[in-house]
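Amino Acid Chain and Its Fold in Token Form
===========================================
Structure side: the spatial fold of the chain, written down as a series of whole-number tokens.
Position: the record begins directly beneath this header, with no further notes in between.
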Amino acid sequence: MSTIGSHRRLQGRDEPFFIGGSYAIAVAYALVILVPVYFVIVSSFKDTNEIYRAPLGLPDSFSLVKYVSAVSKADLLRAMGYSFGITAATEVLTLVLAFPAAYAIARIPTRLGPVSEIIFSFGFLVPAFAMLVPVYITMSALGLLYNPLALIIFYPATMLSLSIILLASYMRDVPRELEESAELDGATRPQMMVYIFFPLARSGIATLLVLNFLHVWNEFLFALVLLSSKNRTVQVAATSLRAERVADFGLIAAGVVIISLPAFLVFALFQERIVVGLTAGATKG
């Protein structure tokens, strides 16, 4: 008893140090992230000479000239329109393909279910660079090169692995009694999928939509290769802000802030749902 009591007293003494150390590490990590963000934001209101003179200092004036110039020079509004259109179409197509597949894996008792899930998990092992040339040749053969439809077809294929595995983990947690009751009422599997599983898996669906949005919005490589200058996405359009000889770093910083704002807002609004959704999906089944 004395040994247990002394051990608890030692734990009580160590607890403040543990909590203080954890907070110190968290603050240090937050600074590592926030300092570059702060630097980009304040730089978007400065010219190049002012950035070199005082990199972390506040600008002399908070003028929006750099933002207006960035939008005009790179045609960012048009590019953002293409990005939003491609992202929305990709989200819908991914969900339409992933949801029935996840339902089949999670709820239809066959030997192919676990095997199919393993096959889909192999998608995490394929690097993007390995797909670049085959995808380019395929889209060229289909006549979709430099067409936004190429990305709308390609992006869901890259996101099906995560989408199916995440949704399947949610569907496994649905009580079997709900299916049995629906079967007694004469419901078909498509009806059960739409009216039972889709509403119950809405938390996982929301998490999936946010993750896919961030992936598609920030994707650069395939958007650069598969699209032309007339229909480029916002990430590709931002590259035109760089001058050939003398770079205007304030202009580039303003462009970075503009194209990062939608992704930041989506993540800020749904970050709790992402964490809860991923955690719940990892513990289900």
